[in-house]
Each structure stands twice: as structure tokens, then as C-alpha cells.
Design goal:
- The protein is an alpha/beta fold.
- Helices cover 45% and strands 11% of the residues.
- The protein has a six-stranded parallel beta sheet with strand order 3-2-1-4-5-6, with helices on both faces.
- The longest helix has 14 residues, at 23-36.
Length: 221
């Protein structure tokens, strides 16, 4: 019999890789950029190493691995990534149906991301999700100055909605995000569409592979 969970009072979505399929674009830009700065990685290596990290942490790790990065490196990468993302990236299949279901059930949801608000506006805007969540249900590490896996970014979102951590569910695709959710005392469901399953399991996330399965996990079926 499928495992069931208590109905949450708040659902917290990560953005990249959970709402929007932007990770392949950003990862491709990152691989090409780092190669110019002395660090050559295969796309799958980059994805396993860097997915979910805040850019400051990503820069630190890349430097430790041998990249020689200019002072304005984060701005450089974002400029290159934004140019491609503006061409359009698809939503994760089935995620709009999940959000509609949450609205029907009067369960609030929000976005907690290590990405910038500008990046989210670029990727979510064409699909109507920027207007759906902004300004009261988007929590960006760039704005709050605290990033996953620090639990504070999740707890800030919960406090905004006046919900206890134990009553929140976090939807993540990275070990970094799952670790932050665990530290915040929140249940985490790990959406696996790439190579993060082992890492998510290690952080205590409950794995699922298709958004159509999420309502059941949320106790809505």
C-alpha cells in the first residue's frame, strides 16, 4: 500500500529543477564558462557537484577544484545564463496541475530558492508563475542574504505564512535543499529527474519521480 503523509499547511517549492526545467541550460553555461577559467568538467560532474548551491558557495568550490575566477565571475555567469534563459525554458511536466490542486484545497505554497529574483522572473514569467508568486511568496537567497542549506531561509518562509516547521513540506531536487529542509525540521520530498537520487536519499528526502504522484504524497488523494 502506498505510504501516505499528513496534509501540510504550507508547501515550499524550490524553483530550478522543481518548477522550471532550467538546470540543463544553467549547467551547460557553467561547464563552458569554467572551462575558460581552467576547470574542465563533464556536464554530469558539474551537475552532481554544483546543483542547488548558492553562487558564492559554487564559486568557492570551483576555485578549490582549480578554476581561476575573476572578481566579477558571478555576474559574468549570470549574464551568460540569462541570455539563454530568456529564450525560454519549459516548466517541469505536471507542476501547474499540482499548484492548481493546492489552490483548490486552500493550501498555501511558495518558492524558496538560492537563485536570484531576476533569474526567477526570467524563467517563471512567461508561464505566469512569477505573477502567481511575486512578491509575497518568493524567498530568494540573494534578497534574504541567507542560502540553503541554512535552515533560516525555510523558516523565514514558514514564519511569513504563520505556519510551524513541522506542518511544512519542502519539494526539492538537490541535496543542498534537502539538507536545509531537514535542518529546519521540515518533511522533504525529493523530485528526481536527473542524477540526484542517492544524494537526496542521504539527506532523508522521500523520493518521487513524477509530479502526478505529488498530490498523493501531500495527502490530497
Amino acid at each position: 500500500m502506498p505510504k501516505t503523509y499528513p496534509r501540510p499547511k504550507l508547501v515550499i517549492f524550490d524553483c530550478d529543477g522543481v518548477l522550471i526545467d532550467s538546470e540543463p541550460v544553467f549547467n551547460a553555461v557553467l561547464v563552458q564558462n569554467l572551462a575558460r577559467h581552467g576547470l574542465r568538467l563533464k556536464p554530469e560532474q558539474s551537475q552532481l557537484t554544483f546543483t542547488g548551491l548558492a553562487m558564492t558557495e559554487l564559486a568557492r568550490m570551483a576555485s578549490q577544484m582549480g578554476a581561476v575566477l575573476p572578481q566579477n565571475w558571478i555576474t559574468e555567469v549570470y549574464d551568460e545564463a540569462y541570455a539563454l534563459l530568456r529564450k525560454g525554458v519549459p516548466l517541469i511536466p505536471g507542476v501547474l496541475a499540482v499548484i492548481r490542486r493546492l489552490d483548490e484545497e486552500n493550501i498555501p505554497c511558495c518558492i524558496v530558492s538560492n537563485g536570484s529574483e531576476e533569474k526567477m522572473q526570467i524563467t517563471l514569467g512567461p508561464h505566469g508563475l512569477w505573477d502567481r508568486f511575486h512578491p509575497n511568496a518568493i524567498f530568494s537567497a540573494h534578497t534574504l542574504k541567507v542560502a540553503k542549506p541554512d535552515p533560516e531561509i525555510f523558516l523565514t518562509a514558514a514564519a511569513h505564512f504563520d505556519v510551524q516547521a513541522r506542518d511544512c513540506v519542502v519539494i526539492e531536487d538537490s541535496a543542498t535543499g534537502a539538507r536545509g529542509a531537514a535542518r529546519a525540521g521540515m518533511q522533504c520530498f525529493g523530485y528526481v529527474a536527473t542524477t540526484q537520487e542517492t544524494a537526496l536519499l542521504a539527506e532523508g528526502a522521500e523520493i518521487f519521480h513524477h509530479m502526478k504522484d505529488l498530490p498523493r504524497l501531500l495527502g490530497l488523494s
